[in-house]
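Phosphatidylinositol-glycan biosynthesis class S protein, pasting as requested.
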Amino acid sequence: MAISHDETAKRRGVLLAFWAVFLLGLPMWYLTTQVSRAPLPALPTWAPLKPIFPISIQLEEDTLAGVSALAIQKLNSVQDVYHFSTETAAARDTWTVQVKLGAQQAIQFDENKSRTITLTVPATQDHASIADAVAETLQKLTGDERQTMAASRISARASADLRVVNYAPRFNLLFSLMNGGGLHPFLDWPIESVLAETVEPILASIQEVSTFIVESQVQHYAELTFEPKFEEETGEHVLLPSDLSNVINAAEWPLATAEGDAKPLNFIIYVPKPEHRPLVIKQDGKSAAGYAFLLPQFGSVVIYNPPANETSKTMDKAILATMMETCTSHFLTLIGMSPRIAGWPDHSLWRRDAFYRARLMELIRSAQQTLASIPKMVDALPNMHVPEQAAARMAQALTHVDAALLHTTAANDYDLIAALRHARQAVAFAEAAFFDDKMVSLLYFPQEHKYGVYMPLFGPLLLPLGLSLLREIKGFLVARRVRRSTEAKKVQ
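Structure tokens follow.
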């Protein structure tokens, strides 16, 4: 049956209408699916960080003039981690070395005098030898610190020691008394007063680095997951080094866990049940020093074996204070504080300043690495949405990085505390920009996924329209060829 001319025209009109709607809708579809990409601020080229170490060398004798400059020159020539300087304006951060003449060389740390070291040198030495003595003393005191700082240039970690936890804005410190059995447990302990005397002064001295939240708990029944080995010769129950990682019964013990941006640190006083006492730690058949061990990036455990005639339900304060000193030492190791200097308290200004400088390097390095990663991620994902908020946070992070660098490397603007505060803000803004919700949602959305989205949408539409268009074009060409052939015959 032949199709009339009117039906053909109507069919072609309908087809053209569909194609017209489709083609006219393409610009609208393109505009509505186009992702907005806010321009990111340009990143500067950061030079390797060499912070200032503010120092003041005071000489007892006028005849020692020139020793200070010689000592500083030697210090800066034998190491490239710090720039030792006597020209800083920040008196509160400056360490003073008082050089005195005496019978023999000696060093004295005066914690009562803020940031003061007294160095006595033999009176028979010349200026160069005295300058060498000053430089060697400071080199020795900063040895561990400089090693840590050198490692932080390679990695954003504050320490090469894998026991040390990375920086976190907040730390949750949970002190737990775990009773190994339900028979004769300790029901109470004077933890608040002991923490106020041992832990809280240290936390107050390092509060510029992180916020520390302290909690405590008593568990009346905390079983081990294994039976300690019993030695008949000594009557002791033994923990071997291989057993220490299994002491923590994470499945049943209610310990501190990660929450938001806070990292947990657990400090456990473990009281074995009576049938496991005394519980000791041994290595190679010999008792280890003490009854405590540190768990890297987790916390520490102190084992307490009460006397056989113990009847009190409250732990003795003096005993708890002794164990808390061990926990305090472990805490300082976990956060990366340098080893203790003999004669100085655990929270001495020297150790605190060294800890601040190490964390400052870690924070600046972390902020710089995060900021450098943002443009790389955006360039790798062309269809990633970059909101104005992320670009603004990145700009704020750059501002704080620049301020931290200024307070770290400029003699006239040196301020360790201000640099730390700016570095913390830089890390916070950089991570907020990198982990922006609208950006992270497309972080793992490859280009190939688009085909899976658009094929079910456009396939059923374009296939019949395309086939119909081809059929109409073919019909049009056939009809035109027939018409021309007919006209040619009429002419003949």
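Note for the archive: The chain has a mean pLDDT of 83.
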